[in-house]
Amino acid sequence: MKIVVVGSGTAGSNFALFMRKLDRKAEIIVIGKEETMQYSPCALPHVISGTIEKPEDVVVFPNEFYEKQKIQLMLNTEVRAIDRERKAVITDKDEIPYDKLVLAVGSKAFVPPIKGVENEGVFTLKSLDDVRRIKAYIAERKPRKAVVIGAGLIGLEGAEAFAKLGMEVLVVELMDRLLPTMLDKDTAKLVQAEMEKHNITFRFKEGVSEIIGSPVRAVRIGDEEVPADLVLVATGVRANTDLAKAAGLEVNRGIVVNEHLQTSDPDIYAIGDCAEVIDAVTGARTLSQLGTSAVRMAKVAAEHIAGKDVAFRPTFNTAITELFGLEIGTFGITEERAKREGIEIAVGKFKGSTKPEYYPGGKPITVKVIFRKSDRKLIGAQIVGGERVWGRIMTLSALAQKGATVEDVVYLETAYAPPISPTIDPISVAAEMALRRFR
């Protein structure tokens, strides 16, 4: 069997490795635009800040590692078309036939049509080349004031990186809060307060209409001209669908796939940022543009091609980050989105400590849990705290994936030791608060 993978990022690289474990004889070819296989895009802000020394350090495995696994690499290569009738991929260098084709073509940074967005000193943060350009610009120009357009994960992590380098940072966001797709306004305010302690300011419900100067010297917000030596455009990403669309595959916001990650052509799969899957709460189609989702999709696609009856489960989009030592974990639906979707919910919220009150060193933690009233099931959570958010959001997400009810979380068996956790965990206390709204 000949398997061709288009895309050498997280999804494509992991698929190739999973596939090789399952089938030692298959011919596996990975075609990628970049010069390396998988690296971690989530690590890029930490390269800018200097926490990770060099851009090359975020490459997971050298190209030679894949070649030793007898995975053929065609890097620095662009795929121009897919001929489904002849089952061939046409690149800028050659034509490659396939038995199975896996599209792991990822996403691209969305750049809104702002006047001056092409000027020197304006960047996106999506690739190793982006990081190299930003670091070179900082070394040469030594900017003191940065403006970040967009308060999503990439925007905030970029803002943190610039602040750690001593810059004054302004984050401009069209919505009324930071992380608007992940957090409600109450939990977002906790993150905002922490970031404001570190020379970062915010302007919400506003947009940048113009970037002035090349190199940049200011941005225009409304009628105001705000000084800026560097601008980061972090207004989200868009799935790369052009190749699939030109090949006649079904495409919406992403490439439409079934539970096995097959496209409308059963011999072609789509995985990672480009694939449109199912939302676990609403049942609607959604994108799951997370590294963890890319790896899970890669595993499911490889196993299905190998003959296993496996499916990619509907996604809650569980995510976590850390900003200036503050951990933020989320999954599922927010309170605001539930109202928009017409889902009646019960919300529980608890603000406490990560350790018993009598034990020194506890850090504040806020847990917000969201249950659907119709079936009492857990459908979302937001946790903001100084430590151990990861374990709690993972626990709640796992419970939600298993269909846990409010009672399941209230009466959950948890672990206790004074240096680590209280006797009644904050997630159970928050669920108790929600339970009262069912009575």
From TrEMBL:
GO molecular function, one term: oxidoreductase activity
InterPro entries tied to this protein: FAD-bd_OxRdtase, FAD/NAD-bd_sf, FAD/NAD-binding_dom, FAD/NAD-linked_Rdtase_dimer_sf, Pyr_nucl-diS_OxRdtase_dimer
Domain called FAD/NAD(P)-binding: residue spans: 1-284
Domain of life: Archaea
Flavoprotein recorded as keyword: yes
Name of the molecule in the record: NADH oxidase 1
Pyridine nucleotide-disulphide oxidoreductase dimerisation domain location: 324-423
Family note: Belongs to the class-III pyridine nucleotide-disulfide oxidoreductase family.
Keyword field: FAD, Flavoprotein
Cofactor: FAD
